Amino acid sequence: MATSEAVYRAIAEHDVVFRADCPSRPILDQIADKWSMMVMAVLAEPRRFNEIKRRLDGITQRVLTQTLRRLERNGMVERRVLPTSPVGVEYSLTPLGASLREPFAHLYDWTVAHASEIQARQRAYDRRAPR
């Protein structure tokens, strides 16, 4: 049995409560948001700030800065000052951050595979939902 299946079975069988003080909650909150996952996908190779920003349509400079700082604080991303003139900064995944690539790829693949069905269900819900 896969590890995630074992976790889900234990939750179902033992009426596990997702406690507010569970250490996983803030970590999941910090790394599982859309911008963090997209930044980590873009960092398949080291990149400079503006290159990351250009590859993430819709992200603001402020949000990208906050996301990179949060990922750096969590040990997922490394910030390296380049000895250039003017001084440049490059970001790359740490081994810990790279370890999320496989689970993220599964989530992304699932999203792509089910996007049409989810969009159809959203439209059906919106048609019948009270306005």
UniProtKB/TrEMBL annotation:
Q: Which residues form the HTH hxlR-type domain?
A: 22-119
Q: Name one GO molecular function term.
A: DNA binding
Keyword field contains Metal-binding: no
Keyword Repressor, does the record have it? no
Pfam families the UniProt entry points to? HxlR
Keywords attached to this entry: DNA-binding, Transcription, Transcription regulation
Q: Which PROSITE patterns match?
A: HTH_HXLR
InterPro entries named in the record = HTH_HxlR, WH-like_DNA-bd_sf, WH_DNA-bd_sf
Its recorded name reads: Transcriptional regulator
Annotated organism of origin? Streptomyces marincola
Recite the lineage of the species: Bacteria, Bacillati, Actinomycetota, Actinomycetes, Kitasatosporales
